[in-house]
Design brief:
The chain is mainly beta and about 280 residues long. About 5% of the residues lie in helices and about 45% in strands. The protein has an 8-stranded antiparallel beta sheet with strand order 8-9-10-11-20-16-15-14. Strands 4, 5, 12, 13, 17, 18 and 19 form a 7-stranded antiparallel beta sheet that branches. A 3-stranded antiparallel beta sheet has the order 1-2-3, with no helix packed on it.
């Protein structure tokens, strides 16, 4: 029997389940409801995502979240307001699953509608694929295309563009597993949250107790986006759509980003992470 059209998708690699994609989560409006991947696991079964953790209830596994689309919050939680700081506002949007154009055990193509205050602002085409790399690593290939469906320019911002330095979150975001010890984070030539946060790098790795995630921008445009990184407060990695200036999308235009994430068992070194990132992006 075929699954219901909106039923969660279970991603599989080499026959093993590695991710569950929820299309219509039942969440309060304050969390900016949106489809997400959780749990995501290594091939050995170690969970590497968290859902609605106590420290940030609006962190939803793996997905796309943006704190400011023309003043509408598609990230969840409080909104950073210039000269006021984090503020509770009734401005939360929702990403609504519309349909699947493709749905297979190793991936899917989905259409979503970004709606706020009863109006559709953006239409998204999301393409996700899971691929085996080695017997201990697989890759999650995640592309999202945001099209402005209004008759006016739309701009995407972040707390950083609204006056909070170092807080350029918004875009692809992975809330990782929180453990007793904060994970290590490194790129090809830098190490530690302070050094890698806000920087540009072809790939960035986060290593926990017995797992490693390696994030790689898979297009020139994506690689120009700085990395948003947290390890001490909580473990999370994102690619910033709006770091120093707002991203403007003209009516009918589309912004596209592609991130490939290696999900590996064990703690990888710099050379291993780099090799797997290259392999994942080239596939």
């Amino acid at each position: 029997m075929a699954p219901a059209p909106d039923a969660p998708v279970v991603l599989r690699v080499a026959g093993r389940p590695v991710g569950r994609y929820v299309t219509r989560p039942e969440l309060p409006a304050r969390l900016s409801p949106r489809p997400y991947l959780h749990p995501v696991t290594t091939l050995a079964g170690t969970e590497v995502t968290e859902l609605t953790p106590a420290d940030h209830l609006h962190h939803l596994g793996v997905g796309v979240a943006v704190p400011d689309v023309e003043g509408n919050n598609f990230w969840g939680g409080r909104t950073y307001v210039r000269d006021r700081g984090p503020t509770e506002l009734d401005n939360h949007g929702v990403q609504r699953h519309a349909s699947f154009q493709l749905r297979d055990p190793d991936g899917f193509v989905e259409e979503l509608r970004w709606v706020a205050s009863g109006a559709e602002l953006l239409r998204e085409r999301r393409t996700v694929a899971a691929t085996e790399l080695t017997d201990a690593a697989w890759a999650l290939d995640f592309t999202f295309s945001l099209t402005n469906v209004t008759d006016a320019e739309l701009s995407i911002g972040s707390p950083a563009t609204n006056g909070r330095p170092g807080a350029a979150y918004g875009g692809y975001f992975w809330r990782a597993r929180k453990e007793e010890t904060a994970p290590d984070v490194f790129t090809a030539d830098a190490e530690g949250e302070t050094e890698v946060h806000g920087g540009r790098a072809d790939w960035l790795a986060m290593a926990g107790a017995d797992w490693t995630l390696v994030f790689a921008g898979a297009t020139d445009t994506t690689r120009r986006d700085p990395w948003f990184v947290r390890t001490a407060e909580y473990p999370g990695v994102g690619s910033s759509l709006a770091s120093h200036t707002r991203l403007t999308i003209a009516p009918g235009d589309t912004a596209v980003r592609r991130i490939v994430t290696v999900v590996a068992d064990g703690r990888l070194g710099r050379d291993e992470a780099a090799a797997l990132a290259r392999k994942a992006v080239s596939q």
